[in-house]
Structures are given as structure tokens and as C-alpha cells.
User: Fold this.
Amino acid sequence: MAVRVRISTIALPLLVCLSAFSFAQELGREVGLPLLVNLPTAPIPVRADGRNVLVYELHLTNSGSKPVTLVRVEVWGSGRLAVLEGDELAKAVKPSGLAAGHPTMIGPGLHVVVLFWLSLDEVPTAIRHLVLGKLGEDPQPLTVEYRSIAVGGHPVRLRPPLRGDRWVAVNGPSNETHHRRSWLAFGGRALVPERFAIDFVRTSEAGSFTKGDPADNRSYAGYGAEVFAVAEARVASVKDGIPDNVPANKSPTGPQTLDTMAGNFVALDLGSGRYAFFAHLQPGSLRVRPGDRVRAGQVLGLVGNSGNSNAPHLHFQVSDGPSLLFGDGLPYVFESFFHEGRLRKSEIPLQNWVVRFQ
Assistant:
């Protein structure tokens, strides 16, 4: 009798486990996609072209043994805000590590990033995501829903880093540029340091980038232009002494390392965990030192062509850390600028906009 009780006690948990396993197998469609979903950086709304823009990334990792093919990703607030599918979804997906063929196919154990650029009339208080995909050869789409994420905060408001007209926001904010699509893992975080970065390049009055010998930095309209502090701030770090490159040359002057990629630069501590970076400045032109206090509009240096650069320009960005590469890119707006003859206030210029700063 005692033996029968002991056997029943041992067997019961095993029967329960087998039963649960069978239940999950039979109802696999209700279990959903085997995707690990993460939104590492909650979006901060920023004004651009008269609308509110949310710029962020959704990370998807296939934890299963079969490939997952993404069909559609939906973004919801109080209602449905956006749908990515077809070619639009394929363009928004950036594979990480080994590619599995088509951008929307996530192989077993692999990872992709879905890049979002939502232009909205009103800012939602929170967003959630619904991902639809096909598992292996199963034609029936499965789903996984990611929890609600709060939307809030404000971009830092800055004075322009340059003055004058004909400044082109090359590689400026959009969902397509290499600034936007470059992400890395550092310190256990997924970072997009250049999420809102802009390469300001000046054109001549004729509208060309060069006037004269294209291999001479002085032929570029922006070369030597003054670069200004965008706010009252403390100088966090500087780099000087890196020579300018020969424009249009495929190989920069000197080796490219983490220490030299930004060329000669100034980093300003804006407070509240925000840092402004001014990169590729002329050697010998820097007029500040670490620890200095600067006022808005104070000259920091001159536009150059140092570091990872093939033409004179100012690389500008705001991040949440004191390093150009190892901080997460934050939104910002300029107090004012002109675009196509229209005064823009508290907005960020978009990709390839030609702007005039006062």
C-alpha cells in the first residue's frame, strides 16, 4: 500500500508536465511567435517639418529552432498609429550579425532591428507593438505583442552651431542614412549614437559644394567657418592636432581608430546627462579647453576635414554620454532657422534640408 502511494506521488508531477507540454504543442498557434522583443530606448517626441516625430528601434530575436518571416508590425496608441509591411517593412529592418537571406527573415538564434520613424499630428502617452510573422513553413501567421511603453520627455533646445546660409543637413535625420542605421552594443546597452546626427556641408552661391580644385579644402564653402557653442555649458573634452584630410581622397590622413575617427572635436556637457558634439574641426583652431565654461554663441573652433571625413563639414549630435560613439543619440531642436524661406522654430532640420542660421 505504501509503495503504491509513493509511486503515485512521484508520477503525478511527471503526468502534469507531460500534459502541459502536449497542451502547448496542440495550441502552438495561441502561444505565438518565439520572438524576444525589446525596445531599449523609449522615444522622445521631437518636432520636424511641423509634425511630431518618434524615432526609435524595436529589437527582435528568434529564440526558436525555425526561421521566422516577418509579415507585419503594427504600432498602437489609443488607436493604430502605423503599420509596416511589404517593402516598407523590409526597408525598415536592419539585420544584425549573420543575415538569413531576405531582411524580414530571422533565422534561429538571430536578431534584427526594426527602425521606426513615426510622423504624427498628436503625441500618444504610450505605444505598444504587435508583430505578425510566419514560423517555418507554416502559412498561418502567428503574433506576439510587446508591452506598452510610455512616451514622454522633451528634446533639448539649442542655439545653432553655425551661422549664415546654404548649410545642407547631409545625412540628417531620416530613417535611411548611415547615421540612423548604425547601432552598436556597449556596456550591455543597444546604442544608436548618431540617431539624430547631422553633417552640415555648405554650398557655394552657385549651389555646388566646391569652387576650384576639389582636392583643396579651401575650395569648399564651409571650410574655416566658425563653430559656435549651442548653449551655456561646460567643456567636457576636446581633441586637437589631427591633420585635415585631402578632400575626395579615399584614404584619410593617418590611421583611423576610435581615438581619431571624430578628428578634432569639442564635447560640451549640457547638463541633465546630455552632451553636444562638434566633430571634424580644423587642427589648431580649437579655442576652449576641458573644464572651461562657455556661453551660447561662443566660438569653439573652425569647420575642418579631420578624422573620418572626406570633405570639410561639421558633424553635430547630442548624446546621453561623454563619448561620440559610446552614448545613445538624443533628439534636439534649434531655437530657429530658415528653410525654403520659412522661419522654423524649435524644430530639427531633416535630411538634405538647406537651412539658414541667423
In short: The CA atoms of residues 99 and 107 lie 8 Å apart.
